[in-house]
Amino acid sequence: MKKLLTICLIIGASITQVLAKDKVLIFCKTAGFHHNSIAVGVPAIIKLGQENNFDVDSTTNAAKFTVDNLKQYKAVIFLSTTGDVLDDAQQTAFEQYIKAGGGFVGVHAATDTEYDWPWYGKLVGAYFKSHPKQQDATLNVVDRNFIATKHLPETWKRWDEWYNYKWIADDLHVLIKIDEKSYTGGENGDNHPMAWYHNFDGGRAFYTELGHTDESYADPLYLNHLLGGIKYAMGRKK
Protein backbone atom coordinates (compact mmCIF):
# COMPACT_ATOMS: atom_id res chain seq x y z
CA MET A 1 0.00 0.00 0.00
CA LYS A 2 2.86 2.35 0.91
CA LYS A 3 4.53 1.56 -2.41
CA LEU A 4 1.32 2.34 -4.31
CA LEU A 5 0.90 5.60 -2.38
CA THR A 6 4.48 6.58 -3.18
CA ILE A 7 3.94 5.88 -6.87
CA CYS A 8 0.73 7.96 -6.85
CA LEU A 9 2.52 10.85 -5.16
CA ILE A 10 5.33 10.74 -7.72
CA ILE A 11 2.87 10.67 -10.61
CA GLY A 12 0.86 13.49 -9.05
CA ALA A 13 3.98 15.61 -8.59
CA SER A 14 5.02 14.94 -12.17
CA ILE A 15 1.61 15.95 -13.52
CA THR A 16 1.66 19.11 -11.40
CA GLN A 17 5.11 19.94 -12.75
CA VAL A 18 3.98 19.44 -16.33
CA LEU A 19 0.82 21.50 -15.85
CA ALA A 20 2.55 24.30 -13.92
CA LYS A 21 2.66 27.50 -15.93
CA ASP A 22 5.75 29.53 -16.54
CA LYS A 23 5.82 32.64 -14.38
CA VAL A 24 7.30 36.12 -14.73
CA LEU A 25 7.82 38.88 -12.19
CA ILE A 26 7.08 42.54 -12.87
CA PHE A 27 9.29 44.80 -10.78
CA CYS A 28 8.13 48.41 -10.77
CA LYS A 29 9.87 50.11 -7.85
CA THR A 30 10.76 53.75 -8.46
CA ALA A 31 13.35 55.72 -6.53
CA GLY A 32 13.21 58.64 -8.97
CA PHE A 33 10.51 59.74 -11.39
CA HIS A 34 7.36 57.61 -11.17
CA HIS A 35 5.66 56.85 -14.48
CA ASN A 36 1.87 56.90 -14.25
CA SER A 37 1.76 54.32 -17.06
CA ILE A 38 2.98 51.66 -14.61
CA ALA A 39 -0.60 51.55 -13.32
CA VAL A 40 -1.91 50.46 -16.73
CA GLY A 41 1.22 48.52 -17.74
CA VAL A 42 0.94 45.98 -14.93
CA PRO A 43 -2.63 44.80 -15.73
CA ALA A 44 -1.81 44.85 -19.45
CA ILE A 45 1.08 42.42 -18.89
CA ILE A 46 -1.07 40.26 -16.61
CA LYS A 47 -3.61 40.06 -19.44
CA LEU A 48 -0.85 39.09 -21.89
CA GLY A 49 0.05 36.28 -19.52
CA GLN A 50 -3.53 35.06 -19.31
CA GLU A 51 -3.75 35.01 -23.10
CA ASN A 52 -0.36 33.33 -23.61
CA ASN A 53 -0.20 30.73 -20.85
CA PHE A 54 2.11 32.30 -18.31
CA ASP A 55 1.45 33.66 -14.83
CA VAL A 56 2.45 37.14 -13.71
CA ASP A 57 3.40 38.43 -10.28
CA SER A 58 4.13 42.11 -9.66
CA THR A 59 5.91 43.90 -6.87
CA THR A 60 7.56 47.13 -5.77
CA ASN A 61 9.26 45.26 -2.92
CA ALA A 62 12.98 44.81 -3.55
CA ALA A 63 13.13 42.24 -0.73
CA LYS A 64 11.68 39.78 -3.27
CA PHE A 65 15.13 39.72 -4.90
CA THR A 66 16.57 36.66 -3.20
CA VAL A 67 18.16 33.66 -4.88
CA ASP A 68 15.41 31.30 -3.70
CA ASN A 69 12.50 33.56 -4.68
CA LEU A 70 13.81 34.46 -8.13
CA LYS A 71 14.25 30.78 -9.04
CA GLN A 72 10.52 30.45 -9.70
CA TYR A 73 10.51 33.02 -12.52
CA LYS A 74 11.36 32.54 -16.18
CA ALA A 75 11.88 36.29 -16.56
CA VAL A 76 11.94 39.48 -14.52
CA ILE A 77 10.45 42.63 -16.08
CA PHE A 78 11.76 46.01 -14.92
CA LEU A 79 8.72 48.13 -15.80
CA SER A 80 9.83 51.79 -15.82
CA THR A 81 11.93 51.39 -12.69
CA THR A 82 13.97 54.47 -11.81
CA GLY A 83 16.97 55.21 -9.61
CA ASP A 84 18.65 52.97 -7.07
CA VAL A 85 16.11 50.20 -6.50
CA LEU A 86 18.18 47.25 -5.20
CA ASP A 87 20.71 47.03 -2.37
CA ASP A 88 23.99 45.12 -2.63
CA ALA A 89 22.57 41.76 -1.52
CA GLN A 90 19.60 42.07 -3.87
CA GLN A 91 21.90 42.98 -6.74
CA THR A 92 24.00 39.89 -6.06
CA ALA A 93 20.89 37.69 -6.04
CA PHE A 94 19.74 39.13 -9.35
CA GLU A 95 23.18 38.63 -10.92
CA GLN A 96 23.08 34.98 -9.81
CA TYR A 97 19.60 34.64 -11.32
CA ILE A 98 20.78 35.87 -14.72
CA LYS A 99 23.97 33.79 -14.58
CA ALA A 100 21.81 30.72 -13.96
CA GLY A 101 19.98 31.35 -17.25
CA GLY A 102 17.26 33.79 -16.18
CA GLY A 103 15.60 36.33 -18.44
CA PHE A 104 15.36 40.11 -18.20
CA VAL A 105 12.96 42.56 -19.84
CA GLY A 106 13.57 46.29 -19.50
CA VAL A 107 10.75 48.67 -20.36
CA HIS A 108 11.24 52.41 -20.97
CA ALA A 109 12.77 53.87 -17.78
CA ALA A 110 14.62 50.63 -17.02
CA THR A 111 17.57 52.50 -18.58
CA ASP A 112 17.06 55.28 -15.99
CA THR A 113 17.92 52.81 -13.24
CA GLU A 114 20.98 51.76 -11.20
CA TYR A 115 23.61 54.11 -12.66
CA ASP A 116 26.16 52.97 -10.06
CA TRP A 117 25.82 49.25 -10.90
CA PRO A 118 27.87 48.67 -14.08
CA TRP A 119 26.72 45.04 -14.42
CA TYR A 120 23.11 46.22 -14.66
CA GLY A 121 24.04 48.83 -17.25
CA LYS A 122 25.56 46.11 -19.42
CA LEU A 123 22.48 43.93 -18.89
CA VAL A 124 19.90 46.56 -19.87
CA GLY A 125 22.20 47.85 -22.61
CA ALA A 126 22.19 51.65 -22.17
CA TYR A 127 21.84 54.49 -19.69
CA PHE A 128 19.33 57.33 -20.06
CA LYS A 129 20.59 60.88 -20.62
CA SER A 130 17.61 63.08 -21.51
CA HIS A 131 14.42 63.35 -23.56
CA PRO A 132 12.65 66.07 -25.54
CA LYS A 133 8.93 66.69 -25.27
CA GLN A 134 6.60 63.85 -26.24
CA GLN A 135 5.93 63.83 -29.98
CA ASP A 136 5.40 61.70 -33.06
CA ALA A 137 8.49 60.09 -34.56
CA THR A 138 9.32 57.49 -37.18
CA LEU A 139 10.83 54.20 -36.06
CA ASN A 140 12.76 52.01 -38.48
CA VAL A 141 12.36 48.32 -37.71
CA VAL A 142 15.76 47.01 -38.80
CA ASP A 143 15.15 43.36 -37.86
CA ARG A 144 11.70 42.00 -38.63
CA ASN A 145 12.65 38.35 -38.13
CA PHE A 146 12.72 38.52 -34.33
CA ILE A 147 9.80 37.43 -32.16
CA ALA A 148 9.23 40.99 -30.85
CA THR A 149 9.29 42.74 -34.22
CA LYS A 150 8.09 40.25 -36.84
CA HIS A 151 4.57 41.73 -36.72
CA LEU A 152 5.70 45.36 -37.08
CA PRO A 153 5.78 47.47 -40.25
CA GLU A 154 9.18 48.38 -41.64
CA THR A 155 8.53 52.00 -40.68
CA TRP A 156 6.40 52.64 -37.63
CA LYS A 157 5.16 56.12 -36.76
CA ARG A 158 4.03 56.60 -33.17
CA TRP A 159 3.77 59.07 -30.31
CA ASP A 160 5.90 58.49 -27.24
CA GLU A 161 8.66 59.93 -25.09
CA TRP A 162 11.97 59.38 -26.89
CA TYR A 163 15.12 58.85 -24.84
CA ASN A 164 18.64 60.00 -25.60
CA TYR A 165 21.37 57.84 -24.06
CA LYS A 166 24.61 58.83 -22.37
CA TRP A 167 26.04 55.35 -22.99
CA ILE A 168 25.08 52.40 -25.24
CA ALA A 169 26.60 48.91 -25.05
CA ASP A 170 28.37 47.59 -28.12
CA ASP A 171 27.11 43.98 -28.01
CA LEU A 172 23.42 44.64 -28.70
CA HIS A 173 21.35 43.10 -31.48
CA VAL A 174 19.40 46.20 -32.43
CA LEU A 175 15.79 45.69 -33.52
CA ILE A 176 14.45 49.23 -33.89
CA LYS A 177 16.13 52.58 -34.54
CA ILE A 178 14.56 56.02 -34.41
CA ASP A 179 14.88 58.46 -37.30
CA GLU A 180 16.15 61.64 -35.67
CA LYS A 181 15.11 63.62 -38.76
CA SER A 182 11.47 62.76 -37.98
CA TYR A 183 11.31 64.63 -34.66
CA THR A 184 13.12 67.30 -32.66
CA GLY A 185 15.54 66.70 -29.80
CA GLY A 186 17.40 63.52 -30.78
CA GLU A 187 21.05 63.39 -29.68
CA ASN A 188 22.39 59.97 -30.68
CA GLY A 189 22.64 60.49 -34.43
CA ASP A 190 21.97 57.94 -37.15
CA ASN A 191 22.62 55.03 -34.81
CA HIS A 192 19.90 55.71 -32.22
CA PRO A 193 18.48 52.37 -31.05
CA MET A 194 15.07 52.04 -29.44
CA ALA A 195 14.78 48.28 -28.89
CA TRP A 196 17.31 45.46 -28.74
CA TYR A 197 18.20 42.10 -27.25
CA HIS A 198 21.36 40.20 -26.37
CA ASN A 199 22.64 37.18 -24.53
CA PHE A 200 24.33 38.42 -21.39
CA ASP A 201 26.28 36.66 -18.64
CA GLY A 202 24.42 33.36 -19.03
CA GLY A 203 20.94 34.85 -19.44
CA ARG A 204 18.78 36.67 -21.99
CA ALA A 205 18.01 40.41 -21.99
CA PHE A 206 15.49 42.43 -24.02
CA TYR A 207 14.86 46.16 -23.81
CA THR A 208 12.31 48.45 -25.40
CA GLU A 209 12.41 52.21 -24.93
CA LEU A 210 8.75 52.44 -25.91
CA GLY A 211 6.03 52.52 -23.28
CA HIS A 212 6.00 55.90 -21.54
CA THR A 213 2.39 56.67 -22.41
CA ASP A 214 -0.74 55.08 -20.99
CA GLU A 215 -1.99 54.61 -24.54
CA SER A 216 0.90 52.26 -25.30
CA TYR A 217 -0.72 49.57 -23.16
CA ALA A 218 -3.85 49.55 -25.30
CA ASP A 219 -1.95 49.53 -28.62
CA PRO A 220 -1.89 46.03 -30.19
CA LEU A 221 1.35 46.73 -32.09
CA TYR A 222 3.13 47.78 -28.93
CA LEU A 223 1.64 45.00 -26.80
CA ASN A 224 2.74 42.34 -29.28
CA HIS A 225 6.18 43.93 -29.37
CA LEU A 226 6.40 43.74 -25.58
CA LEU A 227 4.98 40.21 -25.55
CA GLY A 228 7.63 39.07 -28.00
CA GLY A 229 10.34 40.47 -25.76
CA ILE A 230 8.87 38.69 -22.74
CA LYS A 231 8.70 35.41 -24.66
CA TYR A 232 12.32 35.78 -25.74
CA ALA A 233 13.42 36.46 -22.17
CA MET A 234 11.46 33.40 -21.02
CA GLY A 235 13.24 31.27 -23.61
CA ARG A 236 10.21 30.74 -25.84
CA LYS A 237 10.81 30.56 -29.58
CA LYS A 238 7.32 31.62 -30.66
TrEMBL record:
Coiled-coil ranges per UniProt: none
Domain ThuA-like: from-to ranges: 23-233
Organism: Mucilaginibacter angelicae
Alphabetized UniProt keyword annotations: Signal
Position of the signal peptide: 1-20
Protein name per Swiss-Prot or TrEMBL: ThuA domain-containing protein
Classification via SUPFAM superfamilies: Class I glutamine amidotransferase-like (SSF52317)
Highest taxon above the source species: Bacteria
